[in-house]
From TrEMBL, chain A:
GO terms for cellular component: membrane. This is N-acetylgalactosaminide beta-1,3-galactosyltransferase. It is an enzyme of class 2 (transferase). Its cofactor is Mn(2+). Gene3D superfamilies: 3.90.550.50. Homodimer; disulfide-linked.
UniProtKB/TrEMBL annotation, chain B:
It comes from the Eukaryota. One of its GO terms (biological process) is protein O-linked glycosylation. It is found in: Membrane. This is C1GALT1-specific chaperone 1. It is a single-pass type II membrane protein. PANTHER family: BETA1,3-GALACTOSYLTRANSFERASE, C1GALT1-SPECIFIC CHAPERONE 1. GO terms for molecular function: glycoprotein-N-acetylgalactosamine 3-beta-galactosyltransferase activity. Belongs to the glycosyltransferase 31 family. Beta3-Gal-T subfamily. The gene is LOC110488964. Keywords: Membrane, Signal, Signal-anchor, Transmembrane, Transmembrane helix. Residues 1-34 form the signal peptide. GO terms for cellular component: membrane. It comes from Oncorhynchus mykiss (Rainbow trout).
Length: 405, 317
């Protein structure tokens, strides 16, 4: 009896010991792996803020509540000579409609992503904020203030930055803009033309007006006429519906509503997020159908490869779009749509990508283009000489590009 | 009474020591799962630009012929919408995309494996793929809930010889076993698949129905069988060491990067030449098609040493 009892006690003790230590060890292990990951939150945040300020000062020159681009983003291993040329010749001032309550929620993400590709960026708010920085337009906040803010913002832009840009873009703090593609659209025009571009809507006006959320861009001449229009009272604050009021004023002062579609007539400015344009079937009763100036395409044809803008973009979609547009790519992929170089720009011979080794599932035989082998630009300066006579024909299509009537 | 008490105490002491010893030995670690951050002793890095430049013309031609991929896509009727999405999106970029189903579905074409067990399905599919490979030498295994950028896969394996055994993906460690995570796609070279199909015949090393007390997942079973043939899991990385195979969706990876307060959210997220993402909705996959194969900023060009042409008869890429 006694022997059995003590063995039993031993067994119980063994189990208790194992379990206790298991629980104890689990705690200890857990804590150890945890403590290596979590640092005191407060310290992390200020360190991050300091790094951000440092990074900011490298990329922007803050002056008079505007951010002047010092260092627009480049990628390792890319040939961006065309983008750089357009950056110099098609100078864009981006002004972003925001408010004091949205600086950290929305405007900050604009600042971290697409606005870095503008020549100048100004964040327009009702209140001055020297740190962000934002310009205080002296209005209140709210939907009914939208046109007031727009009027004052454009006036501010012309007055303070008229000489520093050729084109003036208005965007919301939930608009994502691919600024390089905007330059491609604008490069076939001059800032002296009285013209503006965006997603064209047709009702209420003769020549149509541009959707506010999808963003719109005025030439310098258009901006001057806008400001003059208010001086001469040809234009006034007619309604708070900012985009319509803008369109009505533009019509009055003789500014043309431009066609921003690409050379295969696909839209570039978009009033919704990519998922909706690419996959949604909008119900026929939806206002969108009756508003669009040009025929709507659903599915992949909705949107140009060189899309310029999307609207209703939240914080994480801002970064995702930046990743899709500027980072994620398919190695070696030859895009189906080969956009022509803008008039007057050196024909992008490299765009054609006919050199190198073509690979296609359907044709197992390797296609060799007229070039034997594409040399990396960094390896040789003989870029242009590598082109055989056949390349000369390629210059013609670009010059003959007149289908944007 | 006293002897019972002392036995009890001895019991506790011995129990505690026993537990400590076990955990120290490492094979039983309380509270620790297979940690993906473990240093991967086997990893495969994508070739650098310089490495590719140093290849001759004829070598390049040869490599581009060799780097053709047979996609093994494991579907079932319950995920019909993913099945059709895979077919309409990334599947078009495989040199051959074959769908293997647990049971036949009238709506879509697939090889009917007539099998419900995951491991048995995988075995049958891989055997079928091996028998029908033709002259394709690389195999990519995925479920249709994964999105793959095949061109980037080709770039990763471009300079690798498929007559050598390769078993690549997002390598994970579970105890002593290193395996490739199924969720983010599995890459097998011809040689690896050949050895695998051979060891399938060995019921001892690679049983068709798992004999273990607890059922191992099919990804681990695969790793065990391959290990017997001398093939080990390797982690696929870009030239900077960033993982190319992702088991999360691009949206959640971006969100993770945002939560980490990264200075550059996009830089801290994912590789520019990522190969797979998992857990995205069919609509999100269509958006990714647009983002990868169409949307780009004008004026930025990468003069890659190899060119892949777009597939015929397609409009979303």
């Amino acid at each position: 009896m006694k022997a059995l009892g003590s063995r039993f006690a031993f067994l119980i003790g063994f189990l208790v010991g194992t379990c206790t230590l298991y629980v104890f060890l689990r705690q200890v292990w857990f804590e150890r792996t945890f403590s290596t990951r979590s640092q005191p939150d407060g310290l992390e945040k200020t360190a991050a803020q300091l790094r951000e300020l440092e990074e900011d000062s490298k990329n922007w020159k803050k002056e008079r509540s505007a951010l002047f681009n010092l260092n627009h983003p480049h990628h390792k291993g890319e040939d961006s000579h065309m983008a750089d040329e357009l950056y110099k010749k098609v100078r864009i001032l981006c002004w972003v409609m925001t408010g004091p309550n949205n600086l950290q929620k929305k405007a900050r993400h604009v600042k971290n992503t697409w606005s870095r590709h503008c020549n100048v960026v100004v964040f327009m708010s009702s209140v001055d904020d020297p740190d962000f920085p934002t310009v205080g337009l002296g209005t209140k906040e709210g939907r009914d203030q939208l046109y007031w803010k727009t009027i004052r913002a454009f006036h501010y832009a012309l007055e303070n930055h008229g000489d520093e840009a050729d084109w003036f873009l208005k965007a919301d703090d939930d608009t994502y803009v691919v600024v390089d593609n905007l330059r491609w659209v604008l490069a076939n025009h001059t800032p002296e033309e009285p013209i503006y571009f965006g997603r064209r809507f047709k009702p209420y006006t003769k020549q149509g007006y541009m959707s506010g959320g999808a963003g719109y861009v005025l030439s310098k001449e258009a901006l001057k006429r806008f400001v003059d229009g208010f001086k001469t009272k040809v234009c006034t604050h007619t309604t708070h519906v900012e985009d319509l009021a803008m369109g009505q004023c533009m019509e009055k002062v003789g500014v043309v509503a431009g066609d921003a579609r690409d050379t295969v007539l696909r839209e570039t400015f978009h009033p919704f997020v990519p998922e909706q344009h690419l996959t949604s079937k909008f119900p026929k009763s939806f206002w969108y159908w009756s508003y669009c100036y040009y025929p709507i395409s659903e599915g992949p044809n909705c949107c140009s490869d060189l899309s310029v803008s999307f609207h209703y973009v939240d914080a994480s979609l801002m970064y995702l779009l930046e990743y899709y547009a500027y980072h994620l790519r398919a190695f070696g992929y030859r895009y189906r749509y080969q956009p022509p170089a803008p008039l007057g720009y050196k024909n992008e011979a490299w765009d054609r990508s006919e050199g190198g080794h073509s690979y296609s599932k359907e044709q197992p035989a390797i296609q060799r283009g007229p070039l034997a082998r594409v040399e990396s630009p960094s390896r040789t300066d003989r870029k242009q000489e590598v082109m055989p006579p056949a390349a000369a024909e390629k210059d013609q299509p670009a010059a003959a590009q007149d289908d944007k009537q | 009474m006293l002897s019972e008490g002392s036995s009890f105490v001895k019991g506790i002491a011995l129990g505690g020591t026993f537990c400590l010893l076990l955990s120290l030995l490492g094979s039983f670690a309380p509270g620790m799962q297979s940690s993906p951050e473990d240093h991967h002793h086997h990893h495969i890095k994508a070739p650098t630009k310089d490495e590719l430049q140093s290849l001759s013309d004829s070598q390049m031609v040869e490599l581009s012929q060799r780097v053709r991929v047979y996609c093994v896509i494991m579907v079932q009727p319950s995920v019909l919408v993913y099945w059709s999405t895979a077919k309409d999106t990334w599947g078009k970029h495989c040199d051959q995309a074959v769908f293997y189903s647990s049971e036949s579905a009238k709506a879509l074409e697939a090889v009917d494996l007539n099998e419900q067990d995951e491991w048995a399905k995988l075995r049958k599919a891989l055997k079928h793929a091996y028998d029908n490979a033709g002259d394709l030498r690389w195999f990519f295994v995925a479920r249709p809930t994964t999105f793959a950028i095949i061109e980037n896969l080709k770039y990763l394996i471009l300079a690798k010889d498929p007559n050598e055994p390769f078993y690549i993906g997002h390598a994970m460690k579970s105890g002593e076993l290193e395996y490739v995570e199924y969720q983010s796609g599995i890459v097998l070279s011809y040689e690896a698949l050949k050895r695998l199909v051979n060891v399938f015949k060995d019921e001892e090393k690679c049983p068709e129905r798992g004999r273990a007390l607890w059922k191992l997942s099919e990804e681990k079973q695969l790793a065990i069988c391959l290990k017997y043939t001398g093939v080990f899991a390797e982690n696929g990385e870009d030239t900077q060491g960033k993982g190319l195979f992702n088991s999360k969706s691009v949206g959640s990876l971006i969100q993770d990067s945002m939560n980490k307060n990264n200075l550059d959210v996009v830089e801290g997220c994912c590789s520019d030449l990522a190969i797979t993402f998992s857990g995205m909705s069919p609509n999100q996959m269509q958006v990714m098609m647009f983002g990868v194969y169409r949307l780009r900023p004008y004026g930025h060009n990468f003069h890659d040493s190899l060119i892949f042409l777009p597939p015929e008869g397609s409009d979303n890429d």
